[in-house]
Amino acid sequence: MAQQRFVIVGGGLAGAKAAESLRDKGFDGKITLVGDERHLPYERPPLSKDHLAGKADRDSMTVHPDSWYAEHDVTLALGIGVSRIDRDDHRVQLADGSGHSYDKLLLATGASPRRPPIAGAGAPGVHYLRRIEDSESIRDTFATASHLVVIGAGWIGLEVAAAARQAGVAVTVLESAELPLLRVLGPEVAPVFADLHRAHDVDLRLGANVAQIAPNGVKLADGTEIAADAVVVGVGAAPNTQLAERAGLRVDNGILVDDALRTSDPDIVAAGDVANAFHPLLGKHTRVEHWANALSQPPVAAATMLGQRASHEDLPYFFTDQYDLGMEFVGDPTGYDRVVFRGDVAAREFIAFWLKDNRVLAGMNVNVWDVVDPIKALIGGKAPVDPEALADPGKPLTAVE
Ligand SMILES: Cc1cc2nc3c(=O)[nH]c(=O)nc-3n(C[C@H](O)[C@H](O)[C@H](O)COP(=O)(O)OP(=O)(O)OC[C@H]3O[C@@H](n4cnc5c(N)ncnc54)[C@H](O)[C@@H]3O)c2cc1C
């Protein structure tokens, strides 16, 4: 039988981990990983944290060292993107006209920063953050800028604000909602992040509508002008689905896949930020733009490519580090009717639980560690819990019923 050829499109964490999983599972055919960035696949969380702060160099972020790819016989095609998938011929075409035939194909094309429909949002010198070069050019501004404006109080905007403050730069954060992270955390928990940034002298302006953006400042809809030495826009990311759409795959807020990460074409799977996967425990499609998902989906994608039965059932998990606040979040709070706190919210040392009908949907531990597994067990338990026991720090989480 001819040697099997697997192609991975996307040289990020999900793509690199899928290559690793395929070899771990004993695949001895050809693996080609095509990535449009010229760097070895790397992890992005440090781009808004230690790399932005100048504390982590490029090499420390790579998923595997250069030598790993040769040792595992993985062919890297970096610096040129795939421009087309020919499903009938089982072939991907690269932007330089070259191509690769595949038996199975993984799409791990990630996401790109959203550009808000605001005048000047695409102007040269207005910063977005997704790639190494973006992080380094924002870091360069810290050396000379005295005032940074951040548009969007989501995770990335807030992490950039924290890094800038720690570099001694004055920061204004503009957010159109009434609280930072309101959509993700809800009104009970989001104030924690407003207080955190205000305690570090961030000028946090909520309910602010930006009408115009320029590299040297912004204008609000009410006419207020805010001058700045640099502007960073962090208003979310959109999945890179263009290739899949052009190939006629089913796409809806990401490439639609089942729990085995199979697309509407049985020879094509998708994983990572670009995949909108059916989640059997949540009972719905979910697209997760987080690091842990780009780690846990590739083994499932690899198994599916190898014809093995696999299902991705990990709960969404996310972490952030801002100033001296470290946080982990697990679960999906959609539809919650109550939030229960355990610990000291004012001291930023607590766990928050999102409940519906006294069942735990999600939990967030702030500066409290080694509790993710018991929180997952509470979410997975699906039985109602006693909210008073949940709130009682004297009662071990494993004993909450
Ligand atoms: C600044 C920043 C900070 C973050 N911090 C955290 C954090 O603290 N915690 C957390 O849980 N998550 C965090 N994340 C999210 C996490 O990094 C992502 O979930 C993860 O990178 C997703 O990996 P991926 O491989 O799916 O996609 P990506 O990392 O986006 O990789 C996809 C790759 O595919 C390439 N590509 C796209 N189209 C093509 C094509 N046609 N041909 C070839 N290549 C293509 C892209 O250029 C990219 O290199 C952060 C993300 C960013 C940007």
Would you write up a description of this structure?
This protein has 401 residues and is of the alpha/beta class. The chain is 24% helix and 30% strand. The protein contains ten helices and 26 strands. The protein has helices at 13-24, 66-71, 132-144, 155-166, 182-189, 191-199, 242-246, 291-305, 372-381, 387-391; strands at residues 5-9, 30-35, 74-78, 82-86, 91-94, 99-101, 104-107, 111-113, 126-127, 147-151, 170-175, 203-206, 210-214, 217-220, 225-227, 230-233, 237-239, 255-257, 268-270, 275-279, 284-286, 317-322, 325-331, 338-344, 349-356, 359-366. The strands form seven sheets. Strands 3-2-1-7-19 form a five-stranded parallel sheet. A five-stranded parallel sheet has the order 9-16-10-11-12, covered by helices on one side. Strands 22-23-26-25-24 form a five-stranded antiparallel sheet. A hairpin with a 4-residue loop joins strand 24 (338-344) and strand 25 (349-356). The radius of gyration is 22 Å and the shape is globular. The termini are far apart. The model has no long low-confidence stretch (mean pLDDT 97). The structure holds flavin-adenine dinucleotide (FAD).
